[in-house]
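Translate sequence into structure tokens.
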Amino acid sequence: MTQNNEPHVNEYDDDMVAMLELIWGKGFMAPGGAENVRRIVRGLDLSDKLVHDIGCGIGGGDLVLAGQFNARVIGVDLEAPLLERARRYAEDAGLAGRIEYRHAEMGPFAFDDETFDVVYSSGAFIHNPDKAAMFAEVKRVLKPGGTVAIYDWMCGPDPYSDDMHRWIELEGLTFSMETVETYATLLEQAGFSNVTCESDGGWYQKRAREECVQLEGSLKEAMIETLGAETYEHFLEDWRALIIVLDGGEMRPGYVRGVKAAT
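Result follows.
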């Protein structure tokens, strides 16, 4: 799933996962819940198509892809504890027959050439510094005429400000962001056609403010009960810092799509 030889260290602990589910909904570790999954794959016919979910986390997106779009999904992630929860959710939803989960290893994807109809990802490419290698692997495992469709957190063109460094520090995760223009270039260099890369038009900038209001209000009691007061205060500060970098244009979520040429 990644293209270096360094061993992976799990970064999404139970507190982080619990917090994200409270904000984004059961099964989701990226914003927007089912609504954003539908935006990522809008216009695609997924019925009985084989979809590869890169960085599937705890599987909320796969429940939408399989349950609402009738896709067959193979999700992979570097963090085994996340996959355990994803499997439980798929079983609880009666979708275990359409969703398979595999623990990913460092390096090239563990799939044959031309395996998938669609490669999907939400908020996972941000963690990988070698996106050129990732897109090369995506192209390799896609069938001719297949589509890559992802949502990711991207950055502006300028060096990170103190505010950006502060937000990343609060997140406590390994981030490697690129601009939306860089994503377009990397897709084209990998040989994809019909490339589209666009920001979300301020959608998550608005949503993050709503989430912060929830953290300060309707979700506060549940957050403190689940995580404790100290951890709650940490995540509240995290969201306040997030709003600053969204408002400043340093963090720019967006959508990326490309098509592998048919042979």
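Note: The CA atoms of residues 170 and 237 lie 8 Å apart.
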